[in-house]
Amino acid sequence: MQSIALLANIITSNINPRFASLTYTAKGTGEVARHTLRLGASVEAAYKKDLATLTAKRATLTGVSLVACDEIIASLTESLTVGVGNNSAYTCKGVFTHVCKGVKAHAETGEIHVTGFSRSKVTLSEGVHKKVNSSEKTLAKNALRKGLLSGKFRQFVIVNIESARLNGKTLEM
Predict the structure, then answer these.
(1) H-run or E-run covering 42
(2) How far apart are CA 50 and CA 152, in angstroms?
(3) Residue 163 bridge partners (DSSP)
(4) Computed over its alpha carbons, how large is the radius of gyration of the chain?
């Protein structure tokens, strides 16, 4: 528990670590992976770049891919207009309390979540992934998101972090 407090303290301090390496166990699948993150990245800046990327790519798309692209463009535009986290389709409104940039607390459980821009991921132990029957449009959206910056933002629950390296400090949880 002392390591969790130290990790939260480093993240929320004025030291502002730029990169972190986390060994993390995924909640749903049990997969264990080492993630390298850039902390403090701007979601809004990523949305602006993604909007430009999709707008340029739109002319090359047809059918379901074009519909998927248009829906993502509309969502990004709304988020940039009303503010990130205020989109009408956002499903986590009121679920989290902002602590500082990249750190939030779950309103009901109190769990601390860290958000960062994924630079790399190395799977250490495979998890169990359930089969998902996604629609053609969802698959098209997922394929488009793979090439977008906003699709690289990841969220981690601190209690599932086994170890972390920030600012030259290694913390074992």
Answers:
(1) none
(2) 11
(3) 23, 172
(4) 17
Q: pLDDT digits over 143-169, tens only? A: 999 989 998 989 888 888 887 777 666
| Burial class of residue 84 (count of CB atoms within 10 Å of its CB; 0-12, 13-18, 19+) | middle
Q: What is the pLDDT of residues 125-136, one digit of tens each?
A: 998 888 888 999
State the pTM of this model: 0.79
Instruction: Measure the CA–CA gap between 106 and 119, rounded to whole angstroms.
Output: 25
Query: What ranges in the chain are assigned the alpha helix state H?
Result: 2-12, 43-58, 63-82, 136-145
Report whether 111 contacts 105 (CB < 8 A): yes
**What is the CA 20 to chain-centroid distance, rounded?**
14
Helix axes 63-82, 43-58, angle to 10 degrees: 150
